[in-house]
Amino acid sequence: MDTRSAIVASFERLVEAATYDEVTVEQVCRASNISRRTFYRYFDGKQAVLASILESDLIKPVHDIHELIDSDNLKSSSTIIYRRALGRVFEKRGFYRKVFTREHPELMAVYIDMVVAVNRESKGLADLSRQEADFAAYVIAVSSTYAMARWLEQDCAMPIDEQTRLCLRWIYGRFREMEAESGRWRLDGDGC
């Protein structure tokens, strides 16, 4: 395992065992068998480690999915992307329960900023004015992040497919409305 991966793995284990606030850079260094200098060669601090994890777990897979699917079908891509993100969060729920909490809005903001950037690139927002697209990107990011936090707070009690269906139904409601007007996005089943 390379040094960067060792730092990330140690950080995840420590946060899962304690809390984000309790974990120190010194503890991460000890668990990774590295010096503070080495840690800071790779990361600016704990939040940078978290950002790296979010990028790897949740943002990069979105880009990978975009390359594999028909991105003109927003409904299909949104369902695949959101379900995959929830699946990854579920796999590492011990860690994510500690960082996706309302007690840590600054950590959720790291992820929200990443999702806003991804959403701005979405073809689903291409037909909107720049102002509305920026607003939509932010609303989608905040809504999905806080929905995920609530799901984690409830111990992931709702099955992933149901959580995905309900989030997309309510978060992407404006796109369903636009589809009804333009015929671009077919509504089927329950309208989700």
Compact summary:
This protein has about 190 residues and is mainly α. The chain has 10 helices and no strands.
Can you describe this structure?
This protein is mainly alpha-helical and 192 residues long. The chain is built from ten helices and no strands. Helix 1 (3-17) packs across helix 2 (25-32) and helix 4 (46-68) packs parallel to helix 7. Mean pLDDT is 84; it is low at 184-192.
Q: Structural class, from helix and strand content?
A: mainly alpha
Radius of gyration: 18 Å
Number of helices: 10
N-to-C CA distance: 42 Å
Task: Outline the biggest β-sheet.
Answer: none
Strand content: under 5%
| Residue-averaged pLDDT | 84
H/E element order: HHHHHHHHHH
> Which blocks of ≥5 consecutive residues have pLDDT under 50?
184-192
Q: What percent of the residues sit in helical stretches (DSSP H or I)?
A: over 70%
**Care to count the β-strands?**
0
